[in-house]
Specification:
By secondary structure, the chain is of the alpha+beta class. It is 33% helix and 29% strand. The chain contains seven helices and 19 strands. The strands form three sheets. A nine-stranded mixed β-sheet has the order 1-4-7-6-5-8-9-3-2, with no helix packed on it. A five-stranded antiparallel β-sheet has the order 11-10-13-17-16, with no helix packed on it. The longest helix is centred in the N-terminal third of the chain and has 44 residues. A hairpin with a 4-residue loop joins strand 6 and strand 7. The termini are far apart. Helix 4 crosses helix 5. It is rod-shaped, with a radius of gyration of 50 Å. It has three domains: 174 residues, no CATH class; 99 residues, Immunoglobulins (Immunoglobulin-like); 115 residues, Sandwich (Immunoglobulin-like).
Length: 432
């Protein structure tokens, strides 16, 4: 006797069409649930990895090799996730008997009615009394017509995950539309291009207030500072965009100076007692050189090379004219003083400040009496005239051709001896 031919599992259950429709609905719902759950999981994993990759590249500026690794992982993650959450669950979907078992678990009163009806119709040679088989199939069909399938599958977790994935995709598309240039740069770098990100931090270097002993010229890309030797140079760096945690000044000699924050976006430092020429630039955040390089030139400031005071006492004193040098003087009231200085350099100009009146007087060119030539030869100098009617102090402020001022103006004094009437004191009244 030939072996019975196997029954096609895809052939409809002709004896129980209502049961066939119910199991088909359960099978379709299960397939949809697997697809939604699996694809949503894949989308979330891709979104998580792409988001991390974007963050790492934008914030950390990762090198090319790391970006290649990110791309490889971004390709591998979806493939593994598709296999794990879509392909394998899809291949392991239950057959009709398994679907019938799911329905019976949700409806315990059915017992094994649906599973039996499926097996009887799929078996090529069902065993048992034919009449009893017909009764089972008829009972299964009757129960299938009144069957409620809503409790068979809990599809909420899968569709919540699908809604979450859809929301993530919508947010990603919205973010991409708001920053199309950043999106383009990210994907270009993601696939190996060397295109740089837009700079986020911009440092503006300045000399906040021109020091008393310095001159500052601001040019395109460079600040030229001329400062007197030994002067202090203040530096201000203003951060625009993203404020870095630290700003560093890089000096041409190889030294580095960390700047302290002076405000929300400001960093300050003072370079003390500058002695030699140098250049420096600032770096901080993703700004590697700031907007300008500062070139510092150290110059010798103007200074006082000598002081000569010609004193002409008033006629009533009968005192001769005299010349004093480089020190304070004491003179009779009413004396005329011709005060002359020897400036270095010779082309320096300046003024004298008289104290305590705090008034200034311009220095005019006049010969400075030389001490090196016995014949009294003179050299160019600067000076002013003064009638000494009371004691005072004075200091000189010199400025050279570069605009530098003398660092130590000095302070000199003129002490005035009052003119008093003669006094006669009788030592011995008894003598004539």
């Amino acid at each position: 006797m030939p072996a019975p031919s196997p029954v096609d599992p895809n052939r409809p259950l002709s004896a129980t069409p209502a049961l066939e429709r119910a199991l088909s609905r359960v099978g379709g719902a299960l397939s949809t649930t697997i697809a939604v759950h699996g694809l949503a999981t894949v989308v979330m994993l891709i979104a998580a990895w792409v988001g991390w990759t974007w963050f790492a590249d934008y914030v950390l500026r990762v090198p090319f090799a790391v970006r290649v690794g990110h791309m490889v992982i971004a390709i591998a993650v979806p493939l593994v996730a598709l296999w794990r959450f879509v392909v394998r669950p899809w291949a392991r979907r239950p057959d009709r008997a398994g679907l019938a078992m799911l329905v019976e678990r949700a409806n315990p009163k059915l017992g094994e009615l649906f599973v039996s009806a499926v097996e009887l119709q799929e078996s090529p040679t069902p065993s048992g009394d034919p009449e009893r088989i017909r009764e089972v199939l008829a009972h299964a069909e009757e129960r299938a017509r009144a069957l409620d399938l809503r409790g068979v599958l809990d599809r909420r977790p899968a569709f919540l995950r699908g809604a979450g994935a859809a929301l993530i995709v919508a947010l990603a598309l919205f973010a991409a539309s708001r920053a199309p240039e950043h999106t383009r740069i990210f994907f270009a770098r993601f696939f190996g291009a060397q295109e740089p990100w837009p700079q986020r931090t911009h440092l503006a270097v300045s000399i906040p207030a021109a020091p008393e002993r310095a001159k500052v010229d601001v040019g395109q890309g460079e600040i030229a500072v001329r400062i007197a030797r030994g002067g202090d140079l203040p530096v201000l760096v203003h951060a625009q965009g993203v404020t870095p945690d630290e700003v560093v000044l890089h000096l041409s000699g190889g030294d580095e100076i960390a700047l302290s924050g002076a405000g929300e976006r400001e960093f300050r430092a003072v370079l003390r007692a500058v002695q030699e020429d140098f250049t420096f630039y600032a770096s901080g955040g993703d700004d590697a050189r700031g907007d300008r390089t500062v070139k510092v030139s150290v110059l010798e400031p103007p200074d006082l090379g000598g002081l000569a005071i010609r004193v002409v006492p008033p006629a009533y004193t009968g005192l001769p004219e005299r010349l004093e040098r480089d020190h304070d003087v004491r003179v009779p009231a009413g004396s005329t003083l011709a005060i002359t200085i020897l400036p270095h350099p010779a082309d320096a100009r300046g003024e004298v400040r008289l104290l305590p009146d705090d008034r200034t007087q311009e220095l005019v060119p006049r010969p400075f009496p030389s001490t090196d030539d016995p014949k009294g030869a003179t050299v160019p100098g600067l000076g002013f005239d003064l009638v000494a009617d009371r004691s005072l102090r004075y200091r000189f402020r010199l400025t050279d051709a570069t605009g530098l001022e003398n660092p130590d103006p000095g302070l000199f004094a003129v002490e005035v001896a009052e003119d008093r009437a003669p006094e006669v004191e009788v030592l011995s009244p008894g003598r004539s």
